[in-house]
Every structure is written in C-alpha cells, then in structure tokens.
Amino acid sequence: MSKLKEKLTQKIQEFRPRTTRLVKEFGKVLIDQVTIDQCIGGARDIRSLVTDISYLDPQEGIRFRGKTIPETFEALPKAAGSDYPTVEAFWSFLLTGDIPTQAEVDEVVAEFKERGKVPAYVFDAIRALPKDSHPMVMLSVGILALQKDSEFCKFYNSGKFNKMTCWEYMYEDASNLVARIAPIAAFIYRYKYKNDEQIAVDPSLDYGANFAHQIGQVKPYDDVARMYFILHSDHESGNVSAHTTHLVASALSDAYYAYSAGLNGLAGPLHGLANQEVLGWIMEFQKKLGEGVEPTKENVTKALWDTLNAGQVVPGYGHAVLRKTDPRYTSQREFCLKHLPNDPLFKLVSMIFEVAPGVLMEHGKAKNPWPNVDAQSGVIQWYYGVREWDFYTVLFGVGRALGCMANIVWDRGLGYAIERPKSVTTAMLEKWAEEGGRKF
Ligand code: HAX
C-alpha cells in the first residue's frame, strides 16, 4: 500500500467516530431552516452538505483544508525550479489535510506516472465523436469510457461489498481518474486544434509540467497549469460540479460515472463555461469597437450596459456564495501583474474590473458585483497561446477533478447516505404561505 493510502486509512479510521457520534447523539439538533424562496431559488444557502476538504466564506473566499490560497501555495513543497507546488503535493494535502514532505510528494509523482496511462479505447471513444463536438463533451465521454475498468464497480460486483472498506476502491478509481484526466485533456487539445499531432508523455515531468509539455507549451506554462489546476480544484460542496459528483456517487455509482456527470454540470454557462464566455464577450466587444479603437472606461461601460439591457449576464461576475472579489481571481491577477503586466488583454480585463462592479451595483440585481475565478483565467491562457477558448472549461474540469475526487473518497470513507431531499408541490407551498408557515 502506498504511503498516501496508508495515511488516508489512518485518517479515515480516526475521523469516523466524529461522524457516527454526531448522527447518534445529536442527529436531531437543528442547524438551519428552509424558506419558500430557497425552495424555489436553487436551495441557496441551505446548510445540508458536509465536507472538510474546503470551506467557502462569503467574505474571505475559499480555504483548502483550513488554508487560504496564499497559505496553501506557501506551505506546500514546490515543483523544482518553480514558484508553485506540484499538483501531486496538493492532491496529497486535499486528501489528508497534512502538508506532505518532499519524499511523500515524490512518491505520488511516481505513482501518478503509472496511474496516468490512458487505455487506447478512451482515445477511440473520443475520436468516434464528430470533431466539432464541444471539448467538454469529449472530456466527459473520455472519463465515462474509463468506467469499464472501475475497481469500485468490480468490488461491488464481487459479492464481497463492504461499506467500511469500499472507500479503498473509490480511492483507486479517484487516483486513476485524477492521474488520467490531464493526459486525456491534452489529447483532446491536440486532437481538436492541432491536427491530431499528439505529444507523448514525458516521464521525467510532474503533473502540471507534463500537461504543459503534452499540449505543446514551454515554461512558464508549467506553472500556469499547476496554479490553474490547484485554484480550480474545490469550492466546497454546493456548486453544481461538486454537488453533482457527490450526488451521483451517493448512489454507489463509481468515480467515472460521478465525475462524467459533474463535468456535464461544469459545462453550463452559469458555472464553468463562464471562462469561455468571458473570452467570447471580450472578443465580441473588440470586434464591435473596431480595429485600432482603444478600449476606454466609457466604451467598456457602454458594452456592459448593452449586455445587461439585452437580458444577459456579465460573465465572470457575481457568485452564489461570495460577496467580495474572488481570491482565485486575485491570485491569477497577481500572476498577470508579474508575468504579463503590459498585455493589452490583461489591461482590458483590468479595466472591466474597474468598471463592472459599479455597473452591476447600479443595475441592482446581482447580490455580488465582484469578479469570480472565470473573469481572469482566459487572459493567461490567451497570452501563452492557448487561444481556443472553448477549451478553457476543460482546463477547469481537470482542476475540479482534484476536489471532487478527494470528496467522494471521503464520502465513502465516512459512509454518507444516498442523497434524497424531499420535494413538495406548488399547492403545498401556497397553503403554507397562507398559513404563515408549515405546521410541524
Ligand atoms: N450579470 C448580470 N446579472 C447577474 C449577474 C451578472 N454577472 N450575476 C447575477 N445576476 C442576476 C441574476 O441573474 C439574478 O437575476 P434574476 O433575479 O433576474 O434571476 C439576480 O442577479 C440575483 O442573482 P444572485 O443571487 O446575485 O446570483 P445567483 O446566486 O442566482 O447566481 C451566478 C450566481 C454565478 C450564476 C450569477 O452571478 C451569474 O450568472 N454570473 C455570471 C456567470 C458566471 O460568471 N458564472 C461563473 C460563476 C463562478 C463559477 O461557478 N465558476 O465556475
């Protein structure tokens, strides 16, 4: 057994009594109430999911295992010659909550090279799709194709299924999925946009550097990949991709079924596709502006109002939980200030950042007028030559796999139940509205 799995076994065993005690001794303690607008309005803010892997504070933003983004980057061992930690170090941290030693990271790096070998039938399945399929379809199909080799599924069908140990098989699938999703994404990139001229894995490289290599990028894109995958990994459990993955896995579907479904949710324009929408919005804006015309605060303001007046959302702005600038936006902005401060697209995105919150406040609908992670991410990709912006959500999907997979391993480790909230009818809501609330 790998050291990481050994450590995880110990962590899960130590943790279990906490969950068991809460259910047994305090199961009926009230922690929230549900109102009609929450019921109709997307279950917003209802406290009904549990995760210890990340927590999203509306004012502060995300913490991974209790650490802010800068603290996470600071604490984890860095890739050789890099400012950023390896994805492997972060994976170990998300799973266990412990900062791994360099030796522990090296072991995961070596393990991922074995796990990361993608079976040929996955590529065949992707190649069987029309080439103008969206790359998120290709990614979702690629992940689903892996299901055939699910260890969890084999264990379930073995007749020896056991609720206490099934997490170990979920861990195998989750680790394989994380290790394989980046090479699958790289394959899709080269297949769809680079004449199917594939670049072989370089076994001397870590996860992020190998992804850069396989899509045909050079330094410092290795750091872009590491930063990008880590920043997009997890945003507690209520967002569509994480929640879908958790929900599907709660039926004891394996990691491949669950994450393929999660990716389909990520592909929505109100969620992960927003990064593609941001670039699309900017390109449309520049086209309308005409060649040689400089963006100004005035014409950016007008473009934002045009979008809002057309009944559309401003992509990259607003959030269901956050009520301030997303620290994932800030982290990417800091990268831009260091590496591409004079890039015209970065300057335009910075100008939108100056103007959009005021416009959204005046518009008066969005509860959070500040930028989210997607407002900044495309600029970096564009700068380094990854200009096929319909691919950007695939990059998000690679990163999000880390959080979703760590979560479903723990879900099985702690024996979380199949998810099944209760629905009501509109007539019931109307009755309770008349009566001033439901009588318990
Ligand atoms: N532009 C225009 N209107 C906006 C808006 C924006 N950026 N953000 C919210 N609103 C509107 C909503 O559409 C809603 O209008 P209606 O009452 O007419 O339905 C109203 O303001 C209240 O919405 P809210 O409570 O502030 O926000 P929600 O929790 O309902 O939605 C969203 C959160 C992120 C979906 C929303 O802010 C949005 O559509 N933003 C633009 C798309 C985007 O950037 N999505 C990515 C979010 C981050 C993420 O998940 N990344 O993956």
Number of helices: 20
Which residues sit in consecutive blocks of at least 5 with pLDDT less than 50? none
Major sheet: size, sense and barrel closure? Answer: 2 strands, antiparallel
General form: globular
Strand arrangement across the biggest beta sheet: 1-2
- Encode the helix/strand succession as letters: HHEEHHHHHHHHHHHHHHHHHH
Protein name: citrate synthase (unknown stereospecificity)
Keywords: Transferase
Pathway: Carbohydrate metabolism; tricarboxylic acid cycle; isocitrate from oxaloacetate: step 1/2
InterPro entries: Citrate_synth-like_lrg_a-sub, Citrate_synth-like_sm_a-sub, Citrate_synthase, Citrate_synthase_AS, Citrate_synthase_sf
Question: How does this structure look, described?
Answer:
By secondary structure, the chain is mostly helical. It has a domain at 274-383: Cytochrome P450-Terp, domain 2 (Cytochrome p450-Terp, domain 2), CATH 1.10.230. Helices cover 59% and strands 2% of the residues. The chain contains 20 helices and 2 strands. The protein has a two-stranded antiparallel ribbon with strand order 1-2. A hairpin with a 3-residue loop joins β1 (54-57) and β2 (61-64).
